[in-house]
Specification:
The protein has 15 helices and 15 strands. By secondary structure, the protein is α/β, with parallel strands linked by helices. It has a single domain, classed as Rossmann fold. Bound molecules: NADP nicotinamide-adenine-dinucleotide phosphate (NAP).
């Protein structure tokens, strides 16, 4: 039976891959909520994204009838879908919702992160409740992040975390034997801004809990750091590890305040989309799933591979407790600060919920090995994110 799948954030990195995965299942119709932006209409923006999925124009034309664009904005009441008849038509026909729209900039002002990630999610959940009451909605897949646990040490479990405030994190950092003794208050406050995105995502998860109690079936998916396609390296957003790559390549520091044993969890975008699609479609338990790779790699391994590929000198990684921060110039501090906390963290993940579900579908994560990283780097080179020096 044809399923009507409603996707928010379909013009984004993960959302567009989710749309692609949903379209590969020929029975589906995909409805994308998108904004007009920079003089381009929502329709035009979506068609540009969709065209990239198909190698030939006729493949696109053939599939066009399975794609519907709804102009909207999650920060607005009724998701900004102004026409009432249109809204009611959608409410009646949507089967599954994938909510991927978000503001992912880590240190955007908290008010801005909250407006999109918290208020936007509440508008989406209200809309979903209408779909459940008056239509045939089965499940909502809410995309969160593994960072929503707001941890820099310990295990991230597949359960809800208490509402955490940035000050709690500050207290934790001050007490921490690694961070507390070495870092001054100014550093800590700069770091705290990087918790704005995780905090807003945590608050959004707690809203989900509230709506689950109202009877809505909502699964929460928490991917770790998403990297490009596992076969092509293709990515449309160059966050986290990509930003660090640029810093190391451009600055070529001799030493960095990083622990090379820090575990880094990377998940290719195609695998993440496939996992979330499978679970979003088939889950009816309102559970939380950590969408993380069963094997983290070490920061040292990643730095070694990146430096070999791009030809920059692999800097000596000195854990924070042993690093002389006085060595860094102010501009270096500014550049390194955002990475210091992550590069000295030690997080593991509980993946029992996700694994037991995905095992039923014989889902396997690709190995994050030298070859896969080279594939990512090659794509960075192709789009001139970094240029090889050797
Ligand atoms: N990328 C990662 O490494 C990563 C890791 C873990 C979790 N996640 C989660 O995965 C989800 C998708 O992330 P992403 O990397 O795909 O982000 P992205 O590339 O920045 O895409 C964000 C999407 O949200 C849309 N959006 C933002 N504000 C909106 C609004 N007010 N109304 C409607 N749409 C709005 C954007 O639309 P426009 O094109 O109009 O701006 C875009 O389609 C997010 O929930 C994020 O928290 C991402």
């Amino acid at each position: 039976m044809t399923k009507n799948i409603f996707v928010t954030g379909g013009t984004g990195f993960l959302g567009s891959n989710l749309v692609k995965t949903a379209l590969e299942d020929a029975d589906n119709k995909v409805i994308l909520l998108a904004r007009d932006k920079a003089g381009n209409s929502a329709e035009k923006r979506v068609s540009e994204v969709i065209k990239t999925f198909y190698k030939k124009e006729d493949e696109y034309t053939r599939n066009k009838s399975r794609i519907e664009v709804v102009k909207g904005d999650i920060t607005q009441p009724y998701l900004g879908i102004e026409n009432r008849d249109r809204r009611e038509e959608l409410i009646k026909k949507i089967d599954i919702i994938f909510h991927s729209a978000a503001l992912t900039k880590f240190n955007a002002p908290l008010s801005q992160s909250r407006m999109i990630n918290v208020e936007g999610t509440e508008n989406l959940l209200k809309f979903a409740l209408d779909c459940k009451k008056h239509g045939r909605l089965k499940n909502v897949a809410h995309i969160s992040t593994s960072f929503s646990a707001m941890k820099i040490r310990g295990c991230v479990f597949e359960n809800f975390y208490k509402k955490s405030k940035k000050l709690t994190v500050l207290r934790f950092l001050k007490k921490s034997p690694v961070f507390g003794k070495i870092l001054n208050t100014q550093f800590l406050f700069t770091q705290l801004d990087y918790f704005n995105y995780p905090q807003s995502k945590l608050e959004a998860e707690l809203l989900v809990k509230k709506y689950q109690k109202k009877g809505l079936i909502v699964s929460i998916f928490r991917p770790s750091a998403i990297i490009g396609n596992s076969r092509t390296g293709e990515a449309s957003d160059f966050n986290a590890m990509y930003l660090l790559l640029q810093v190391l390549n451009n600055m070529t520091p001799e030493e960095v305040p990083f622990n090379k044993d820090t575990p880094i969890n990377l998940v290719p975008v195609d695998s993440v989309s496939k996992a979330i699609y499978l679970m979003g479609l088939n889950d009816s338990n309102s559970r939380i799933y950590n969408i993380v790779h069963p094997k983290s790699i070490s920061l040292g391994f990643w730095m070694e591979q990146a430096s070999k590929y791009f030809g920059f000198v692999n800097p000596k990684a000195i854990p924070l407790g042993k690093f002389d921060m006085g060595k860094l110039t102010n501009s270096e501090k500014k550049i390194f600060y955002p990475f210091i906390m992550v590069a000295n963290s030690n997080i593991s993940y509980d993946i029992r919920n996700a694994k037991s579900f995905l095992d039923r579908y014989s889902f396997e994560w690709p190995n994050i090995d030298k070859e896969l990283l080279e594939c990512m780097f090659k794509y960075c080179e192709k789009v001139n994110l970094l240029i090889r020096s050797n």
